[in-house]
Design a protein that fits this description.
- It contains 9 helices and 10 strands.
- The protein is an alpha/beta fold.
- Strands 6-7-8-3-9-10 form a 6-stranded mixed β-sheet, sandwiched between helices. A 4-stranded antiparallel β-sheet has the order 2-1-4-5, covered by helices on one side.
- Helix 6 links the parallel strand 7 and strand 8.
- Helix 5 packs parallel to helix 6.
C-alpha cells in the first residue's frame, strides 16, 4: 500500500477572536493536493473567518499553518511569525474569490485579469494578455475583454473574478459564498465553472450553502458549528446520513429552501 500523500495545506490549532468573542476555537485541518473540501454551517459559525485565516486576511491569535514552502507559527512560540513579504508571497499562491466581486470598476475585464500577474509576479504584459485571453475564452467572456464591470451581469462579474484569481496560477483556491450575491438564474453558470475546476484537479476549499453542489463536487464536507468542525466526512455520509442532531437540523432548514442546483463536472 502506497503511503498517504503529504498535505498541501496543514492547519493546526487555529484560534481567532474578535474582542471577547472567540470565533475559531482551535481548528486543525489537512488538505491534500487536488482535494475539494466544502464547508457548510449556519451564519456566524466561523466558516468565512476560517477561510480568511488561511491566506492571512484575518490574522489568528494562535495556531500554525504549513502550505507548500511556507511554515508559520501565529503564536510566535517557534519564531515563525511571517513577515509582510512572506504574507504577500503566500497570497500569490492562494487565490480567493469573495461573494462580492471586488473587481476594479475603472479597469476593463482584461485589465482586471492581468493586473496582479504583471504587478506581483512580474509577468511581461504580452504574456499576461495572452494568458488572460485564454482564461476569458474558457469562461465564455472573451468578447467582454474590453468591457467595464458595470456593464456585466453579476454572474459574468463573478466569473471574471474567478479568472482573475486563476491568472496568478495558484496552488489553492478559496471560494467564500461566491454565489450568495447572485440572482438564482445566474448561479448555475458560476457553479459550472467551479465544477470544471474541481474536475481538473484544482485544490479547493469553498464555503457554500449550495448543498447539492457540495455533494456533487466535494471529496469531503466539513460542518462548522460555534467555531469548531463539528462533523466531517465524505459527502454521502455527512449530507445524507449526518450523525449529529444539529447537522440534521441545519440540513433540513437549508434543503427546505434549496434551489437544488445540480451541476455535473
Amino acid at each position: 500500500m502506497s503511503p498517504a500523500p503529504a498535505p498541501l495545506l496543514r492547519l493546526n490549532g487555529i484560534r481567532k477572536s474578535f474582542g471577547t468573542l472567540e470565533v475559531l476555537k482551535g481548528i486543525s485541518l489537512d488538505v491534500v493536493q487536488g482535494e475539494v473540501v466544502s464547508i457548510i454551517g449556519a451564519s456566524g459559525s466561523g466558516k468565512s473567518t476560517f477561510l480568511r485565516t488561511i491566506n492571512a486576511m484575518e490574522i489568528p491569535q494562535q495556531g500554525t499553518i504549513d502550505f507548500g514552502n511556507f511554515s508559520f507559527d501565529w503564536s510566535g512560540s517557534a519564531g515563525r511569525r511571517p513577515s509582510a513579504q512572506q504574507l504577500q508571497q503566500l497570497r500569490t499562491e492562494i487565490g480567493m474569490v469573495f461573494q462580492s466581486f471586488n473587481l476594479w470598476p475603472h479597469m476593463t475585464v482584461l485589465q482586471n485579469v492581468i493586473h496582479a500577474p504583471v504587478m506581483l509576479r512580474g509577468v511581461k504584459k504580452p504574456k499576461a494578455i495572452s494568458d488572460a485571453e485564454t482564461l476569458l475564452d474558457r469562461i465564455g467572456l472573451l468578447e467582454k475583454r474590453d468591457a467595464y464591470p458595470a456593464k456585466l451581469s453579476g454572474g459574468q462579474q463573478q466569473r471574471v473574478a474567478i479568472a482573475r484569481a486563476l491568472a496568478m496560477k495558484p496552488k489553492l483556491m478559496l471560494f467564500d459564498e461566491v454565489t450568495s450575491a447572485l440572482d438564482p438564474e445566474l448561479v448555475h453558470e458560476v457553479l459550472t465553472l467551479m465544477a470544471s475546476l474541481a474536475a481538473e484537479g484544482m485544490t479547493m476549499l469553498l464555503v457554500t450553502h449550495e448543498i447539492a453542489f457540495a455533494r456533487d463536487v466535494s471529496d469531503r464536507v466539513l460542518f462548522f458549528d460555534q467555531g469548531v468542525i463539528a462533523e466531517q466526512g465524505h459527502p454521502d455520509q455527512v449530507l445524507r446520513d449526518p450523525e449529529s442532531p444539529r447537522l440534521r437540523q441545519f440540513l433540513h432548514r437549508i434543503l427546505h429552501n434549496d434551489t437544488r442546483h445540480e451541476v455535473s463536472p
